[in-house]
Amino acid sequence: MFERLRPCLLLRAPASNMLKSAVSQTRWLHRTRQQPPIPEPRPFVPDVQTFLTLIGRGLSKHASKFPTWESLFAMGGQELKQLGIEPVRQRRYLLRWMQKYRNGNLGPGGDFEFVKDGEAILRVALPPANEVRPTKWAVNVPHPDEPPAEPPKTLVRPLGYKVIGASQIAGPYARMLKGQGVSVKVTEGMWEDKRGRKIDGGERRRAEVRFKKRSAERRAEREAEFLAKL
């Protein structure tokens, strides 16, 4: 009888070995998972202080805890916790913005190329001669106090900024200059994701809170009618 079962045992043995091999390979891949890439700074975001200032929520006060740009983007949740960044929603918010920056999902000014001391200049430019529509564009130009050695061949048309009327540029945090164009400066919370405001206790408690309000209003009305009859 054991001789008849031996082929079956031989067939089942490799499956068990394959399972052990798959588990060991999975654990091995988990232990050697590469760290997320460290992105390059940008002209509008040259250092940690500026990045934390832009994303807001008071995170700029932690800038001294990150000596370099690389040290910030090499951090994970546990490392941020050890540095004393509390509460946990602050760490999650910072990690989420770090990932957004890696993916190039930036706020106003993230695509500026010419920036000096946290300030970018935008001016009105005409389209090329071969353009059929006479559309005017808002472009980022070199700072007048620091002209480049050679004029740039191309100018960036930053997202979120457009020309209104003859020469007025509209966009986030744009301030009119005395001459022509506007300036955009790094501002606290410029890229901040605003937190929602709970109305009547939020979605979970809204029905309960509104019921209690209506009950209190009806009670107040009955008391007022009772006092009026006295």
TrEMBL record:
Keyword Glycosyltransferase: no
Domain of life according to the entry: Eukaryota
InterPro entries linked to this entry: Ribosomal_mS41 (IPR039603), SAM/pointed_sf (IPR013761), SAM_Ribosomal_mS41 (IPR019083)
Record has Transmembrane helix as a keyword: no
Compartments in which it is found: Mitochondrion
Small ribosomal subunit protein mS41 SAM domain mapped to chain residues: 48-104
One cellular component (GO) term of this entry: mitochondrion
Key words, A-Z: Mitochondrion
Pfam families: SAM_Ribosomal_mS41
SUPFAM superfamilies, A to Z: SAM/Pointed domain
Signal sequence coordinates: none
Family membership noted in the UniProt record: Belongs to the mitochondrion-specific ribosomal protein mS41 family.
UniProt protein name: Small ribosomal subunit protein mS41
Organism of provenance: Hapsidospora chrysogenum (strain ATCC 11550 / CBS 779.69 / DSM 880 / IAM 14645 / JCM 23072 / IMI 49137) (Acremonium chrysogenum)
